[in-house]
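Lay summary

Proteins are chains of building blocks that fold into shapes. Our project writes down both the chain and a compact code for its shape. Here are two examples, one after the other.
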Amino acid sequence: MVNAEFARIAPDVKLGRDVRIYAFVNLYGCEIGDESKVGTFVEIQKGVRIGRRVKVSSHSFICEGVTIEDEVFIGHGVMFINDKYPRATTGSGALQTETDWVCIPTLVKARASIGSNATILCGVTIGEGALVGAGSVVTRDVPPGAIVAGNPARPIPSKEMRK
């Protein structure tokens, strides 16, 4: 289901079977797997690979260098970052181009969940089945099955989850 009138989907986008895309989406140079959903006001940049049965909620930004495996949940307003030292200009004052920086990859493993308004810095892996709390800032790898929250995101002991 694609509402092409209100979505910008470049011809180089590879969409799997039964992908649902909602209005006001910008997709280019990416790949989205079967039965995934992309909410309103989402941008997915070139080189991004999204697996099967992934839900990307509204207002999220998935930049170049991000790979999201199968059955991952991306909450509302999640932001991925692919540059550790972002700058608008070079040392000489010229506007930067793609040749002036290095894209640092990020990996979200299968069945992980990322809560609304989380920020995921580049170069991290979020492990299989891990949960990132809403509003968290992920600055380092998240182990498989872990629950992390805060700024910076830190593991939450399982006994705290039972309260």
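And here is the second example, written the same way.
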Amino acid sequence: MEKTEKELMDEYEIHLRLEKGLSINTVEAYLDDLEKLFRFINEEKTDICGIRYADLQQFVAQLKDLGISSRSQARIISGIKSFFRFAMREKYVDRDPTELLEAPKIGVKLPEVLTLDEINRILDSIDLSTETGQRNRAMLEVLYSCGLRVSELINLAYPDVYFEEEFIRITGKGNKQRLVPISPTALREIRNYLCDRNHIAVKKGFEDRLFLNRRGRGLTRVMVFYIIKTHAELAGIHKRISPHTFRHSFATHLLEGGAHLRAIQMMLGHETITTTELYTHIDREALRKEIIEHHPRNRSGE
């Protein structure tokens, strides 16, 4: 059954609020931008399933003609891309017309990154005496130490954890598999969690799933986001973070520690090195601060 525009908007709003964890103002901005697209689609006598890349180019051209700034154009395009990713995931559309759509260049926005101390504080905030405490600790340790996407984490299968070899096998985007090293610390947390998992009545179809909820089913993206948000607050961390923040932090810490960009690309499962190169901007900023602070030319009195 096809969804009406209002139904799509309502479900997309829930996705933005719960899964993406966006603020009320940001959600309203995304929905307002989506309404602009819907008005354009209605004027063109087409629908979400029928819109093409050429139509979207015309839509962007209209934004320019209206005098909308490059930054606002970029935000609108980002919101539309986000909507179509959501629509593809929910199978409301069978293709993404925004794949080739480019936003105006307005500079690189660096992702939020947690320090190692902040990671440790989040992990230490977990009460291991609770029913789900050890699961949450193992889960967040794996999320950080392996740099996984949240979808890869919740779909991780127990048979894909190689304890002796200290690797996990991940099925990423496009069903492409990769081997990712896993730390002894993360493996220890998994072993501790398995004692709890063995007492769960696992539902059919989830027998191999590593991380389960209390009802024996797999976890959802929303649940992982909620767990992270809860423990970040308990740890006194006020940054706007999500499961993806752990992945950003993993890559940044590796780069700062001297890891090669190609190795990080392989561990993250990036299709191209261009995506991974985002983290070099973070590293360059850290380098700039080091130079300003420590270079003899910048010291007072010299």
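What can we say about the second shape? Residues 256 and 286 are 9 Å apart (CA to CA).
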